[in-house]
Amino acid sequence: MILATLYLLQNANNNANMLTKDTSLTKVRDFNLILKYGRWSNGQFLDIKVLKLATIINYFPKKEDPDKFKNQLKIAITVGLKISKRAVKRNRLKRQLREIVRLLIKENKIKSGHYIMVIAKKGSLDRNYPQLSEELTLLLMRSKVLDFTNGLRAHE
Fold first, then answer.
1. pTM here?
2. Can you tell me whether residue 50 is helix, strand or coil?
3. Beta 39-42 vs 46-52: how paired, if at all?
């Protein structure tokens, strides 16, 4: 009984730090916007596509508050079948990338007002966590999405 309670408390704490539905890019409309108007930033084993929402005010949904929509941050992480046919390997890579992004959001290093899509390349499976973190941080810096006022440096 005590172990079950301890497990529930531990999972409740873990879920509080996860990327939420508020920060996940899920709607087809949002994917279409980022694919059509976003800008690519390419690395060795990761690519990102970033869309600054303030630049596409004419395409905001009519039903949503423009100021609130302009200041949101949504992120999508994709690892395709070309990376690996095994779901275990793809999911591990997705978890690592999600954790890197979660830590950056937790430290308030990613500016709001952006849609970000992270795409893994074939060589990303062979990389370890610090290499992935360094690459993603570098790409986000290149895209001017990271907030430099909060003591920016790569995760170790």
1. 0.80
2. strand
3. antiparallel
Give, in degrees to the nearest 5, the angle at Cα 139 between 117 and 112.
60
CATH topology of domain 20-150: Ribosomal Protein S5; domain 2 (3.30.230)
Q: How many residues does the chain have?
A: 156
70 CB-contact burial (10 Å; exposed 0-12 / middle 13-18 / buried 19+):
middle
SS3 150: helix
What is the residue whose two structure tokens read 């997705």?
Answer: 94
Closest CA to 115 of 44, 17, 32: 32
SS3 137: helix
Q: What is the pLDDT of residues 9-18, one digit of tens each?
A: 344 444 445 6
CA 19/CA 75 separation, integer angstroms: 9
Q: What is the pLDDT of residues 73-83, one digit of tens each?
A: 999 999 999 99
Contact 79, 120 (CB under 8 A): yes
For the chain, the structural domain boundaries read 20-150
Cβ-contact 49, 39 below 8 angstroms: yes
